[in-house]
Write a structure and sequence with these properties.
With about 230 residues, the protein is an alpha+beta fold. The chain folds into two domains: about 90 residues, Glutaredoxin (3-Layer(aba) Sandwich), CATH 3.40.30.10; about 120 residues, Up-down Bundle (Glutathione S-transferase Yfyf (Class Pi), Chain A, domain 2). The protein is built from nine helices and four strands; from the N terminus they run E-H-E-H-E-E-H-H-H-H-H-H-H. Strands 2-1-3-4 form a four-stranded mixed beta sheet, with helices on one face. Helix 1 runs parallel beside helix 3, helix 1 packs antiparallel against helix 6 and helix 4 packs parallel to helix 6. The longest helix is centred in the middle third of the chain and has 31 residues. The chain starts with 10 loop residues before the first strand and ends in a 9-residue tail after the last helix.
Length: about 230
């Protein structure tokens, strides 16, 4: 549960386990969701560099070899979006993070599809060759693709302070995990994307971001090393 000491009270879900790697945006999305709902679960750190996500135990839970992996009794979920919505629907009654009305819920679902279908794949395409290969740069196309997603997000924020409306929802948590990480690779230009830049500042002030995102974001930055530059042909 992030920096659990920062929370005075929490609901402990002793029957739930989260396998995660803090530098992963997907894992941090689940961790932020847990902290935003004031929930704590058993957390197991997985060292991706040592391929601990490929052990027989982990493969029995998730043959796709991805993180996070979440288990609640006999239920096993291996997608961060599914985990976040499950936690909000199962253990959070307020409806603030995941609206109960069909319209509000569909907006959150729409944002999650954008993250899983466009935003996260562009992060993966840019970061994985640096994290797990010998690449030291982003090329011009990768930078352009990332900035195109910034433009999309900028448009989504027209007339709003938060993606879900008047307050932070799972939409903001999911986007915060991806955008804060992409921001390390391609900084969000406050002049090109003033609404997105302002949102990123606001969400970075939220307690769940401080307790559950900052540590892993620092680990990601350290792992990346020097900031990538445009590769010259």
């Amino acid at each position: 549960m992030g920096l659990s000491a920062s929370k005075k009270l929490s609901t402990g879900l002793k029957h739930c386990t989260l396998w995660k790697a803090d530098r992963s945006p997907a894992c941090r999305a689940v961790m932020m969701s847990l902290d935003a709902m004031n929930l704590s679960v058993t957390e197991v750190d997985i060292n991706i560099d040592k391929e601990e996500h490929k052990t027989p135990q982990m493969l029995s839970l998730n043959p796709l070899q991805t993180l996070p992996v979440f288990k609640d009794r006999e239920l096993v979920l291996c997608d961060s979006h599914a985990i976040c919505t499950y936690l909000a629907g199962r253990y959070c009654d307020s409806g603030r993070l995941l609206p109960k009305d069909p319209g509000g819920r569909s907006i959150v679902d729409q944002h999650m599809h954008y993250n899983s279908g466009i935003l996260y794949p562009r992060f993966r395409a840019a970061a994985y060759p640096i994290l797990y290969g010998n690449c030291k740069y982003l090329n011009a196309q990768q930078i352009m693709d990332i900035e195109c997603t910034y433009y999309d997000l900028e448009c989504m924020l027209v007339g709003k302070c938060w993606f879900g409306g008047s307050w932070a929802t799972l939409s903001d948590i999911i986007f915060a995990s991806s955008v804060s990480t992409l921001n390390i690779l391609v900084p969000v230009d406050k002049y090109k994307f003033p609404r997105l830049s302002g949102w990123l500042y606001r969400v970075s002030e939220e307690l769940f971001y401080v307790t559950a995102n900052k540590k892993g974001l620092c680990e990601f930055t350290k792992r990346i090393g020097e900031l990538p530059q445009v590769q010259k042909s």
